[in-house]
Amino acid sequence: MNLGKHILLTFIMLMLISFSLSSLFHLQGKESGSKNEALEPIPDPWITQIIPPGGSISSVLSNLDLPGTEIGMISWRIGDFIDVTTIQPGDTLRVLLNDTGDKISKMMFVQEPTVRHHFEARGDSLAYSKEALPVQLRERVIDGTLETTLDAALLSLGLSPADKQNINNGLEGEISFQRDARKGDKFRVFIEERIFEGKPLPRAKILYVNYEGVRSGFHELFRYQQDDENSVLNGLYNKDGKSNNTSGVGYPLGSIHVSSSFGTRLDPFTGRWANHQGVDYRARYGTPVYAVAAGTVISAHYNGGYGNEVRIKHPSGMMTLYAHLQSFGVRTGQTVKRGHIIGRVGSTGRSTGAHLHFGLYSGGRFINPSNLRMVGAEKLNEKQMAEFKQQKEVIRAQMQNVLNPQVAKL
Ligand SMILES: [Zn+2]
Predict the structure, then answer these.
(1) 279 C-alpha to ligand 1 centroid (Å)
(2) Containing structural domain, residue 55
(3) Which has fewest Cβ within 10 Å: 8, 60, 187, 204?
(4) pLDDT in tens, 353-377
(5) Do 268 and 337 have their domain in common?
């Protein structure tokens, strides 16, 4: 046998082997396919992550094999559109990566489960749109009697802990529960719930609360609301427009949208986990920034990563920090009252967009400012009182409608 014939024979044998192998695989393929007709699994290019208790967007994104700077930057930008304090365990994040798998190209974040936030990466920024499924509004009057504590009574009525806290805070300004609450005291709560698929969603709007007790007497609270959904003034007030403010601490801005909370997060600049020593509030350039309590300005200057910062020392010993300001409204050494405009929102220092970094220094370190009990106003002003008066009447009429639906039908 010469060399040419040998090569030819080898070639034919290889052909035969590869043919039989391929038909074998083909058959195998067919066989597995016949078990599950037409359900050839198409890999879903979207990756789904569910927010666990205590989790955040950056914590679930870090489950993906992405550069830290990418996760940090995306989490930072998301805060421009979503108030991160509204993110709940069970919310779902769906992510579509780019062809090389090192960048996020699209995201969908599903909240509570009626709201869908859509994001698309466009170079350095995110394009955003929001889609909300229709919900029904339901007004409900809840009457209760005190057996042990108001806390327990409200919880047993199926109110969420957040709603319960809201009602407690409101009534505490009116009644000393420790001294005056008695078994058999009566209370009424009037709420507006959003109903989806027959079930109420969390965060009901509390429109009215009353409490009547043998020792405490009769007390009422009404909701005051401004057009701005995030206004710090929205909440419960007594009939004279006073709120329960025992802390004496206000908000640094008139409207609150938390874009990044206190604690560990992926730093958008370094891509490493870092401790965020304050709360970031998103706001427009030039928005006034207020001193949260009376005190003395101990610094008002440019300070590296914080940019233009103001620090105020308060008589209680705590210190507050306001960073990334566009401009200053105070000088070092000046004394300020709560609500004094200490500067304007900007993006100076280490920042990727207009926001206020608010820090609270106490006991030798920065602590979480969201533990502070901040109150929008101790008392509504004249213009707000006029609006409040009208809103009170509307709430009373709405409540009458719910209590006597027959009358409403006439
Ligand atoms: Zn910050």
Answers:
(1) 6
(2) 46-132
(3) 8
(4) 999 999 999 999 999 998 888 888 8
(5) yes
